[in-house]
Each structure stands twice: as structure tokens, then as C-alpha cells.
Specification:
By secondary structure, the chain is α/β, with parallel strands linked by helices. Helices cover about 30% and strands about 25% of the residues. Helix 7 crosses helix 8, helix 9 (about 275-290) crosses helix 13 and helix 10 packs parallel to helix 11.
Length: about 575
């Protein structure tokens, strides 16, 4: 009974731990994933990490999410009288880190708020009351006494333009807020178990940091000018202490790969307006899955010259709904219209902030300039849900595939003729992968499927990175492997080979029935297997998904499974 109650009522707990001399981590543990708070998390919840540093003066680095208000403030009061805190360091003003700033200013009216120029500007809009402030620049220092000298690193666009890091020279701790974090909730404070966090670490990077790869590399360069970093105190998930070099190295490799892409898309959004930030991130994630680079820019703070330079170098443009009342954003939009070129591609989405510039006149302006609209404008009339974010992800993938179509053809022709034909002689079956998670569903025609183990029974499936269903096949996800029948597969194959528009129902007109987990079983399939993803391995252009099998059924015991024979190996 207790377990059921805890599962129903969201589990919110607190953890405090001394991570270094005079340095306490205050971790707000949110055990249950909630799409409305975590736009890009898997199934492992998240944490909101805050830190207390006590030198001769005391600094609090970031706060927590508003959902933890009483728990966090009570925990903080158990450590120190909030009125005795001298500095409130704001690494980033997104609500999950600054949700209790107002409360802190009421409890500690004499505290000095420390942050980048942009962070202080954002806080002014958030707080609406005067407060003491100190605006920092890159390389600035703050001496708290007892050896705790903080050096600040300005790290814009990780993932808002207001971000800064703080490095404590006494403890060698770098406080990074979103960067190097992950949505992963555990009692373990640190990253001892690398295998347990690998997938969440990569997924978080892909969704939030990959679209800002150039900014990641700039931040890494500035980090390289600091003394050796012993611990990275992140804003989400476990702190990095055991694998700092390995995990920062991954950020470097992944970001370098992104910046080497031949094609790039400029994504313009407005931070802290409607749902512009998470929607733009979802679209960007879809784009990067195709190997096309993304560079994001917040029109709330962007300089017109920076906007023009980004538009000049971009092959595609994504623009979120611009508030009509924000003069700087309107200036940025005018700059985009003036700099856009006819050979570019365009995609528009509403931000749902209540003051959006209408997408229809804007779309017509870009069409008159000769730009190609890759996907229909995404309208936001209510609070986005999982299906909305999936639609955005698929729209981004459409943009990336459209822009990389010439590269794809070139790659198909690059194989040696004999090798190509020899590789094509590897045959496979014909299968339809179907999955359902919440109100999001997906399907994929597959032929690269093989049994992989006896104990437990398991299969491997190769899933291209730019397939929409990829987001439904992470560790722990469940799906159905539908086996097609020889001589009776053509209709299903034609249907699932179609190019579906973003957000389209893959199962419209197809007879299905739900499995025990709600995933669709194709009624006309020869057999089906209910599977659960146990692990997945990343390759250059595919993921190899290993799944265990829970249940299987055959509808026609005498029928044969369909076989897929190829002549060449450079495509499916």
C-alpha cells in the first residue's frame, strides 16, 4: 500500500551532503519523470542541485524548482540562517534553477545576487523588485575567504544565453548548472556507476547541448584555462567526480562532430516566453539526428549583426513565434527577413506565449522571398504534451533529411561496386516495429533484425538515428516486433514505407490490437513478439537495440516468414 501511494503522489525528497571542505550539496530529488517539468528526460526522474559554500562569507549557488519550495527552504534553514547568506550566485535563470529566488530575496534582503549581465536582466523581469546585484564578466573573481576564491566562466547558450560557471580554487569544484548534467535521479551523489548513467548523459547532451555545439566548444576552451577540475557540480543528476575527463571528453568529441557538419540550420527562439524554449529544443533534436548541425539563437538578447551573420551561413531557418511586444525580438525578426535567401529552407512554429506574431503572414513573407517551407507551421493552441514534442522532433528530422538529401545520394554511390553487390547478398526478414508510450506512437519497417540470445531470449534491431521511432526505443521502453508473412506482406510494407508528415498517425487504416503494454499488434502479421529494450549501442548512423522477449504468438503455424533479398548494400 505504501509503495502504491508513493507512486501516485509524486515522490519528492531532499538530500544534503558535504562534497568538499565548507561545501554542501543540497539536492532536490524528483523521482518521477514529468514531461511538464522535464522536456527531455528518459524514465529516471531528475534532481535540482544547489550548493552552499561557507568561507568567511557565504554563497549559495542556484536554488531549486518551485515544487520543492517548503522542503528546500526548510532544508536550507537547517544548514544556515538564510539571512546570513552574503551572495546568491545565479548560474542560469530557467525556473527549475531560479524558482525560489523570490523566496530567497525575502528571507535574505541584503544578499547580493551574482550573475552574468543577461542573467541579471532576466531576473529583473522575474522578480519585479529591486535587489543588490553584481554583474560578472569572464575571468572575474569573488573571494569568500578561507581560500574559497570563485572564478567565473561566461558560458552563453548552455543552454540559455545567461549561463555562467563558477570555479572554486580551494576545492577544484566547477559549478556548471545545466552543462554536463542529465535527468537522472538516484541516491548516489556522484558518477561512480558510469554504465548506469551513460544513456541519460548522451540523451541530455543530444537534446540540450548538441544544438549549441559551438558554444560547448567555447566553454570547454575557457574551462581549459582553469586549474585542474576535480569535480563538476551539475545542476541536474549526479555530480561528476570519478569520470570528469571521460565525460568532458565526450562533450568535446560530440560537439566537434556537430560543428564539422557540411549543412547547418539556424534556430531562432525566445527564452522564457511561452513554450518557445522546449519546442525549439525538440525541433533541434530532430535536426541533429540527421547529421545536420544546429545553431540556436535567442532573439530576446541577440544583436542584429549576430542574427545577420547566422542567417548568412545557414542552409535552413527555424523560427519560433515572436512576441509582438518584444522590440529586440521584432528587430531580430526584421533582420532575418532582410538577410534570408531564396535557396534556404524555412520552418515556423508558434510559441504559445499569448503574444505571438501570426505565423501565416510570416510564412507568406518567406514564400515571397523564395524560401522552401519544409514542414507545415506548427500551431500551439494549448499546453504542449508528449505528442506535441514528438511532432516537433519529427518536423526537425524532416528539415534535416530535406537538407541532407544530396549527401545521402552521394553516400549511396560511394561504395565500391563489387563490395556493394557482395554486401547486398546478406538477406534478412521483413518486420514492422510498433511502439506506444503515453499518447505517442510509432512504427518502422525493419529488416536488420536477428535473434541475439537464448537466456534470456533476445533480439537485436538496427534503428537508423533519424527514424522517428528511435525516441521510443530507449532502455526500459517496450515495443512489438511484428513478423510479416511471405506472400502477404505487400500492403503492410507499402503502408509503412510511406513518408508520413510530422505528427501523423502511422496506424490510420491499419487493423491493430493492443498488447499487454498498450503497444499496437498488427492483426495481419504472421507472428508477434512483445519486447523490452535492455540496452542499445551507438554506431555512426544507427543504434543497435538489444531487447529481451516477454511474450510471443504465431497466427498461422504453417506459414513462412517474409524474406527480404537485396541486390546492393548501400541502402535497405
Amino acid at each position: 500500500m505504501v509503495a502504491l501511494t508513493e507512486r501516485t503522489q509524486k515522490r519528492l525528497t531532499m538530500q544534503t551532503i558535504e562534497i568538499a571542505p565548507e561545501t554542501t550539496a543540497i539536492r532536490s530529488l524528483d523521482w518521477d519523470r514529468d514531461r511538464f517539468d522535464i522536456e527531455f528526460g528518459l524514465q529516471n526522474g531528475t534532481t535540482y542541485n544547489s550548493f552552499l559554500i561557507r568561507g568567511e562569507q557565504t554563497a549559495l549557488v542556484d536554488t531549486s524548482h518551485a515544487k520543492f519550495r517548503q522542503q528546500y527552504l526548510d532544508t536550507l534553514a537547517g544548514l544556515i540562517d538564510p539571512a546570513e547568506i552574503d551572495y546568491l550566485i545565479i548560474s542560469h535563470t530557467e525556473p527549475d534553477h531560479s524558482g525560489l529566488v523570490k523566496d530567497m530575496l525575502e528571507l535574505a534582503p541584503e544578499v547580493t545576487v551574482v550573475g552574468s549581465k543577461v542573467a541579471i536582466q532576466f531576473l529583473e523581469d522575474l522578480v519585479h523588485s529591486p535587489f543588490k546585484r553584481r554583474i560578472i564578466k569572464n575571468g572575474d573573481k569573488l573571494d569568500l575567504g578561507k581560500g574559497h576564491e570563485l572564478e567565473f566562466v561566461i558560458a552563453p547558450n548552455l543552454h540559455w544565453p545567461d549561463t555562467s560557471f563558477s570555479f572554486d580554487r580551494k576545492t577544484s569544484i566547477l559549478f556548471t548548472c545545466d552543462a554536463f548534467g542529465m535527468h537522472y535521479c538516484s541516491d548516489r551523489t556522484f558518477d561512480e556507476d558510469l554504465a548506469a548513467i551513460n544513456e541519460d548523459f548522451r540523451y541530455y547532451y543530444d537534446c540540450l547541448m548538441g544544438p549549441n555545439a559551438r558554444s560547448v566548444l567555447s566553454a570547454l576552451k575557457r574551462m581549459g584555462e582553469l586549474p585542474e577540475i576535480g569535480t563538476i557540480a551539475t545542476g541536474h543528476g549526479p555530480l561528476l567526480r570519478y569520470h570528469v575527463e571521460e565525460l568532458t571528453g565526450r562533450y568535446r568529441r560530440w560537439s566537434q562532430a556537430q560543428t564539422k557538419a557540411e549543412t547547418n540550420v539556424a534556430v531562432f527562439y525566445i527564452s522564457d516566453y511561452g513554450y518557445s524554449d522546449p519546442l525549439s529544443q525538440a525541433i533541434s533534436h530532430g535536426i541533429t539526428k540527421t547529421g545536420v548541425a544546429v545553431e540556436m539563437m535567442d532573439l530576446r538578447t541577440a544583436d542584429p549583426q549576430e542574427v545577420r551573420e547566422l542567417v548568412d551561413t545557414a542552409t535552413g531557418l527555424i523560427i519560433g513565434g515572436i512576441p509582438t511586444s518584444n522590440q529586440n525580438a521584432q528587430t531580430g525578426l526584421s533582420t532575418i527577413l532582410a538577410a534570408a535567401k531564396s535557396k534556404q529552407s524555412i520552418g515556423l512554429f508558434e510559441s504559445g506565449g499569448g503574444d505571438d506574431e501570426s505565423v501565416y503572414p510570416l510564412r507568406n513573407k518567406f514564400k515571397e522571398l523564395g524560401l522552401t517551407e519544409v514542414f507545415p507551421a506548427i500551431l500551439v493552441k494549448e499546453t504542449p504534451n508528449d505528442a506535441t514534442y514528438q511532432l516537433c522532433d519529427e518536423a526537425g528530422t524532416d528539415m534535416g533529411q530535406w537538407l541532407s538529401r544530396d549527401r545521402t545520394v552521394k553516400q549511396m554511390k560511394s561504395l565500391d561496386n563489387d563490395l556493394d553487390k557482395a554486401l547486398g547478398r546478406i538477406s534478412g526478414g521483413l518486420y514492422i516495429i510498433t511502439a506506444q508510450k503515453g499518447n505517442v506512437s510509432g512504427a518502422m519497417l525493419a529488416s536488420w533484425v536477428a535473434q541475439a540470445s537464448f537466456k534470456p531470449l533476445g533480439v537485436t534491431i538496427a534503428v537508423a538515428k533519424d527514424r522517428a521511432i528511435e525516441s521510443l526505443m530507449h532502455t526500459g521502453d517496450k515495443f512489438v516486433l511484428n513478423v510479416l508473412e511471405e506472400g502477404n506482406y505487400q500492403a503492410l510494407m507499402r503502408h509503412f514505407l510511406k513518408r508520413f508528415p510530422p505528427g501523423a498517425d502511422r496506424f490510420a487504416g491499419i487493423k491493430t490490437q493492443p498488447d499487454s503494454n498498450g503497444c499496437p499488434i498488427l492483426t495481419d502479421a504472421l507472428a508477434y513478439l512483445e519486447c523490452q529494450v535492455a540496452s542499445r549501442m551507438e554506431l555512426s548512423d544507427h543504434y543497435i537495440v538489444y531487447a529481451t522477449i516477454d511474450v510471443g504468438r504465431v497466427s498461422k503455424t504453417e506459414a513462412l516468414a517474409a524474406v527480404h533479398h537485396r541486390k546492393v548494400g548501400n541502402h535497405y
